[in-house]
Write a structure and sequence with these properties.
- It comes from Methylobacterium aquaticum.
- The protein is mainly alpha-helical.
- It is built from nine helices and no strands.
- Helix 1 runs antiparallel to helix 9 and helix 3 runs parallel beside helix 5.
- The mean pLDDT is about 75.
């Protein structure tokens, strides 16, 4: 059984992942701060730590959502509706409060291993990431899919596969990225509107489908 979603769904998913990546948050702030404070190696190690956290969130989401699908297709539909409402809230929150990007030069003692653990810890302890994976991934899997577990796992791995190289590129161009984001509030606001528009569309689409 194929774990690949259809082409339009995959394209939409990757576009959503890209918007999520460029939207500043705790992971991006920490990565840029570590790069500026301790150099590119520290920044890349931070990216590896946050990526491992994402893989763990993916595993947890796959196990939990798959169990829900096995128990009840109706329950899965309820989860998708809750997810749609959560995505709508994210869209509204982005417009109300904007993106979060706090970058300051800092040095963490303990070497690269501690830096890696710091990246992992920031990702794992962010409740928004937990809720995001539990509500975001189901939007791209049909409840009657012959292999929902495989598709959920593929989507999670695809997110990491996209975000990891982009994160490394961000580290390599950290100074320019930081300057562009902090010095251009219109750019930041444009990202907010892009994020809100995309996830608002997803929320409306799933709600209309359920009805």
């Amino acid at each position: 059984m194929s774990v690949l979603p259809d082409t339009p769904t995959l394209v939409a998913y990757l576009a959503a992942c890209l918007v999520l990546f460029v939207t500043p948050g705790p992971d991006m702030s920490l990565t840029l701060a570590r790069t500026i404070g301790s150099g590119r190696r520290a920044g890349i190690v931070t990216v590896l730590g946050t990526s491992l956290g994402t893989l763990i969130h993916t595993l947890a989401a796959v196990l939990g959502i798959s169990a829900l699908i096995a128990a009840s297709a109706t329950a899965f539909t309820v989860l998708k509706v809750v997810g749609a409402l959560y995505l709508a809230w994210l869209a509204i929150d982005a417009l109300r409060h904007g993106s979060a990007l706090t970058v300051r030069a800092e040095t963490v003692r303990g070497g690269l291993w501690r830096t890696f653990c710091l990246g992992l810890g920031v990702n794992l302890t962010n409740p928004k990431v937990v809720l995001f994976f539990l509500t975001f991934l189901p939007q791209f899997v049909r409840a009657d899919s012959p292999n929902p577990t495989g598709q959920l796992a593929f989507l999670g791995l695809a997110f990491v596969g996209l975000a990891l190289p982009l994160g490394i590129l961000m580290v390599l161009g950290a100074a320019r990225v930081t300057g562009a984001l902090q010095a251009r509030p219109r750019l930041m606001r444009g990202i907010d509107w892009l994020f809100a528009g995309l996830f608002g569309t997803f929320a409306a689409r799933i709600l209309l489908t359920v009805r």
